[in-house]
Prior knowledge:
This protein is mostly helical.
Amino acid sequence: MKDHFQKVYNIESDLDPAALSKIRQRPIRLELDDPPTLDEIRKALNSAKKDKATGDSKIPVEFWQVLAEDESTEKLFSEICTQVWETGECDEEWLTNRLKLVPKKGDLKLLDNWLSIMNLHPKSRVLSLQIRSKRKFSSLKLKDLRNKMVL
């Protein structure tokens, strides 16, 4: 099974690198580099789905949500997220995710009949939600700007 999923997730591309230079590039959005604010972290924690797999730490996202109810621990979690954002350095557990296999249909002897789901560590999930939120907000601002430019 390991060989199967290594093939699935490590597909070699026949893409010509010169083709990438022909793709129209969007403007660089430097504001997306800004570290997450306390409010963004709060929103990400609140939007994280409950009752999800915990990863190797066995600490559910609900634990972090309860800690965030206290001002001092919320601030500490925010500082940790900001430090990870700015330095790119974090505990190894943030980067260790687990692939879970769920049967889909048909003959389960065939590996294509299994769905693979990646379980993110809860702290990684919070940062991922922040990134998604920033991208979504940035896309909405860009769309709004384009709408105003249309005559």
